[in-house]
Amino acid sequence: MKPSKDTPNGVRPGAHDAATTLPNPSSQGEAGGDELNTSSTSVISLRILELLAERNAECGVTHLAEALGVPKARVHRHLTALRQEGYVVQNPRTSRYRIGWRLFLLGQKLVKQFDVVGLARPVMEELRDAVGQTIVISSFTEKDVVVLDVMRGRSPLEILLHPGTQFKLHSVAQGKIALAFGPPERRDAVLCGPLEACTPHTITDPMRLSHELALVRERGWADAPEEVFLGVNALAAPIVQDDGSLFGTLAIVGSIHYLPAHPNPQTVAALTDAARRISRLLGGARGN
């Protein structure tokens, strides 16, 4: 995520857009059966589908190859496989390709899966109006927090986030929720790996982070004052699904002046109550 003129002085980005995390398809070959090459092959097919969806029009092999920076023959092989499975269709008159029926159906399923965002927005709006700060709902991968939706704050200082923004789990309040309430394997992997510093305040010591996660589990919410951006804090609480597992987090993000290292108990109560309300919408046990 690029810093903006609206963020506090000294803020350093600790996140990156989801699109930038994909490997460069032109830097890895398809030959061989190892995991790296398999992943590269899958990513190229996904990038082809992404380009077709973004363009919202038919595309030729040449255009796709140039956009991806890979040989046309390679792109053609991927398109042939995708066409055979119904993910793309080819216009017999122009020989160009567009999104197929199977990808459309997959998209419909994904919309239903993430309808939690639509369910959560009224609660997010109420919380935003109550505290005046930016409200963020996020989910997780094994290594990152992924922003799903953002409700812009009404404070003079705007924190610029958008769906798809990613943060390392140890560097943000939302990630501490994922580590405290998510699978132990995820927590163990992060604690055993390198903890990179985004600011001088980022927790980079595994023992200290472990103690912090124990505190998060005890009190039911997390914070991360100036740990990913200087001058910025976030408070986060867990959102739980109907099977009792962690879906994601609800967070308040704002200037350290409005969300100090020792936050107002009323702000914390408003956050945790909103997270419980969203959990109830998902049938989550924590929302009872």
TrEMBL record:
GO terms for molecular function: DNA binding; DNA-binding transcription factor activity. Residues 1-37 are annotated as: Disordered. This is Acetate operon repressor. Signal peptide: none annotated. One of its GO terms (biological process) is negative regulation of DNA-templated transcription. Keywords: DNA-binding, Transcription, Transcription regulation.
